[in-house]
Structures are given as structure tokens and as C-alpha cells.
Amino acid sequence: MGGPSRAAAVSVASNSLLIFLKVTVGLLTGAVSILAEAIHSALDLLAAVIAFFGLRAAGKPADREHPFGHGKWENVSGSIEAVLIFIAAVWIIYEAVKRIIGGAEVEMLGWGIAVMAVSAAANTLVSRYLFKSAREHDSLALEADAQHLRTDVITSLGVLLGLLAVQLTGLTILDPIIAIAVALIIVRAAWDILHKSFGGIIDAGLPPAEQRLIADILNEHRGALAGFHEIRTRKAGAQRFLELHLVMPRGITVEESHRMCDHLEADLRARLPRLEVALHVEPCDEDCPNCPAAACPERRES
User: Fold this and answer.
1) What integer pLDDT is reported at residue 143 of this predicted model?
2) Which of 224-228, 245-249, 296-300 has the lowest mean pLDDT?
3) Is the model's pLDDT at 4 over the cut of 70?
4) Where in the cell is it found (predicted)?
């Protein structure tokens, strides 16, 4: 099992244990905030499972039916995760409002406090590992999973503090209020994941920073180019795609244009990993206003 899949498997194992602990303690104490956290962890587990299979699908090489590869499986898995998180947040809010209206007793808070502390510590370690793996493999699915766990750390600490407040003050209404706060944090995390994942499905361009980097690299080669235009970018999972038109000085040979394209592609791929480049070469206009004097044969002859 490779690097990204191994990281996803670690997340699956961690969340499975935490779900068991939170559900058990949530039922014993009657605390809706702990049950909300159990649901949150269940979503993290589901996200980890989706990420595991999404990464395996995305890692398949290009084939006849999928000439651009399978990278968009990562975007699909991230979008599914986000929708499921929205649904769970609505359920948490519903249950919390019922507790506020009807009232409920909370007991054995010591167990709940202990489980929340363990959850925060475990998810801190696992989320750091997942973020590191996501950066190494440029994996959207692992990043989404890590984002879930980081959110879980925040909500676990919030529930922990809330349970301490309930124990100290006896105000049981604090428990469902905390659960609603947890749900709102979950909604924000889901929106961030959906925005990033769905953009890849509808072929949104690369992030602005990466597009600026491409423009900078092209400008570094202005001395050998007459210009460039029709730049189009997109991303599928970890795979980046770039298409552009290169305007070459009139009169240079096909071989010289080919060497220039190879050189430019190598520079782009060195600065942007997992980049597929498609270049269309065309000659400059007859008046040659932008041709570099050193590169254009017509100007050298004049």
C-alpha cells in the first residue's frame, strides 16, 4: 500500500477507535455535544474511506477511455465528503434544538471530558501526518481528510471546555448550545472543501499563484519568443494541465521551434510538478513587431 493510501488507512483506523469511544460515552452521559462529536468523527471516518478509494481510483494510469487519467476521482470524493458533512451538521442542529426546547439531563461528565481530551490529542497527531502526506503527494483527498480532522480538534476542545463549564455551573443548556456551535464549524469546513473540490470537476483554472508562476516562466523566455496567448489551465486531482499558443519569430526552422518547446516544457515541469503541457506554435505577423532582434532571421538580415 503506497504513501497516500497508507495515510488514508491511518486516518480510518484512528477515526474508528474515536467513534467507538464517543458513541459509548455520549450514550452513557446523555450529552448531545459528545454525540455531535461522534457524528463528526463518523463523517471523518467516511471521508477517510472515500479518500482511500478515491486515491486508489485517481492513481490509475491513463487508458483508452480516460486519456487524461483518473485524477478527478479526488475531486469527486472531496465533493461527496462536503455534502455528507452538510447533512450531518443539519442533524446535529436539529437534535440540539430539541434538547434546548425539551431539556435533558447530563451526567458522568468526567468520562466525556476524558474522551474529548483523547480525541483532540489523537486528531492533532493524525491531521499533521495527513497534511504532510497531502503536501508530499499533492493530494486533494488527503488534504480534505486532514482538514476534517483539524476541524475535529477544534470542536473536541470546544466540547471539552463546554463540559467543564457544565460541571462547574450545572447549566445543562450549555451542552446543546455547544453542539450547535460544533455544527456551524462543520458547515464552514464543508463549504471550504466543496469550493475547492467542485472547482476541479467543472475545470476551474489553476490557483492564481500557479498561474502567475506560469506567466513568469513564459516571460523569462521572451528573448526567444515573439509572444504567447490563449493560456488555459485546469487541474484534476494532483495532475495539472496547461495549454497555450506560442508565437515564434518568423523564419526559424521547425527543428528550432521544437527545441524551444522542449526547453520551455522542461522549465515549466521543473517548477510545477505533475504538469501536462500542450503547445500550439504559430509564426508572428509579417511586420514582426514583437520579435526579439537576436532571434528573428528577418531582423538579422535587415
Assistant:
1) 76
2) 296-300
3) no
4) Membrane
Residue matched to cell numbers 503541457: 277
Separation between Cα atoms, residue 241 and residue 232, nearest integer Å: 8
Beta bridge partners of 242: 233, 277
Mean pLDDT of the chain: 75
Domains and CATH numbers, the chain: 3-201 (1.20.1510.10), 208-301 (3.30.70.1350)
DSSP-assigned beta bridge partners for residue 227: 247
3-state SS, one letter per residue, for the chain: CCHHHHHHHHHHHHHHHHHHHHHHHHHHHCCHHHHHHHHHHHHHHHHHHHHHHHHHHHCCCCCCCCCCCCCHHHHHHHHHHHHHHHHHHHHHHHHHHHHHHHCCCCCCHHHHHHHHHHHHHHHHHHHHHHHHHHHHHCCHHHHHHHHHHHHHHHHHHHHHHHHHHHHHHCCCCHHHHHHHHHHHHHHHHHHHHHHHHHHHHCCCCCCHHHHHHHHHHHHHCHHHCCEEEEEEEEEECCEEEEEEEEEECCCCCHHHHHHHHHHHHHHHHHHCCCEEEEEEEEECCCCCCCCCCCCCHHHHHC
